[in-house]
Amino acid sequence: KKIGGLLVQGRLRTPHAETASHLYFASSSSDSFFQCFSTHPPLAKRIVAIFPRFDGQFPHVKMLPVSTAEIQQRLEDSYAILAQSAATHEGMANAISSAITPEQARAISVGFRNAALVREAIPDDVLRTVHQPMGAMAFIYALLLDLDDSARAKQLKELQPNTAPGVYDQTLKLQAPVATLDERARLALIDLALPALRHLSLPQYEELMRNTEMLIESDRAIILFEYTMQKVLERHLKPKFEKSAPPRSDFRAMEPLANDCAVLLSALARMERQDDAAIENAFAAGVQQLDLRTPISLLSANECNLPQIDAALQRAAQGTLYIRRNLMYACAHTAADDGRMPGREVLLLRAIADALDCPVPPFVNAADAAQSSR
């Protein structure tokens, strides 16, 4: 009776409904052609067989509300369809058809699905917190708390007198859920927190940057995640709160930056790969993308550590937009050479992108999304 009371009476909105009809209690196909061969008698007739007094009237039954997962899936599918159809739109064909192929549209859809998976892994209370300025400050502090109990206690002791009581209390509440997040979720939440952080007052911004530096330097060492966070905050908040001269463009050719290119590509190639051949292949994939006539060689691990990466990025950031974009593209090819993007590669690539003020090329996100889906 409930199936009969539904608006579509259990029918599926898909051309493949008949192939799955044997799995369902009611007829899943709305095609009248298939009704001739239906193995399902009409619902009313089946009910009368076990309940002879049935009057043939089905009670009205409300559909279950659409789930969040269904909404996300519809959004992803719609985006992919729009991306493909836009390529053939009159007046836009020349500009878009060469830029978006059906394969790229599907990759975009996979990227949205992967983003939805990251979103589902984030606790709702953490997500709500990062949308408020004070909560976003507390979230940044919680991200930087050490996993070691004694080191974390030292950080909190230094943090408490240097921040507002409400922010400190929120930091304590966030430390447990934040500690369970992986790198992708952490980066996603930092991005979500940035709009709220832009609404800080100047004194609050200065407090945030002082405390961030204090938490990072508390153990007299800096790890890749901390370095990446610094670059993200500098790129997105510093221009809002600090007056600074326009970036210089001291380098208009790639040759003076050849050694810096070698440092960055070598670091990315060695980040997660252990096999020498795989490292060489990843490095070569990036070199092939460089507009560089000077040959460069793969550096040892000791020649491309974090301080050397930072020095290389400071010089590369003084290149023209073309130079920075070309280097970013080469770095992306190195990172995505093997079709997989572990967390540390994601972190370093994001740090490079923010230091160079260039977005990560979309094919990297697509490759990463495809690997995550698998």
The tally of helices reads 19
End-to-end gap: 41 Å
What percentage of residues falls in helices of 4 or more residues? 55-70%
Assign an overall shape: extended
C-alpha-based Rg, rounded: 27 Å
The low-confidence parts are 32-37
State the secondary-structure class.
Answer: mainly alpha
> Roughly what fraction of the amino acids lie in strands?
under 5%
- Main beta sheet: none
The SSE order reads HHHHHHHHHHHHHHHHHHH
> What is the tally of beta strands?
0
The overall pLDDT average reads 80
In short:
By secondary structure, this protein is mainly α. It is 61% helix and 0% strand. It has 19 helices and no strands.
How would you sum up this structure, described in words?
The protein is built from 19 helices and no strands. It has 374 residues and is mainly α. Helix 8 packs antiparallel against helix 11, helix 14 crosses helix 16 and helix 14 runs parallel beside helix 17. About 2% of the residues have low confidence.
Task: Please outline the helices and strands.
Elements: H1 2-5, H2 32-35, H3 43-50, H4 68-86, H5 93-96, H6 102-120, H7 124-129, H8 133-143, H9 149-159, H10 165-179, H11 183-197, H12 202-217, H13 224-241, H14 258-271, H15 276-287, H16 306-316, H17 321-335, H18 343-356, H19 362-373
Properties at a glance:
about 375 residues, 19 helices, about 0% strand, single chain, mainly alpha, extended
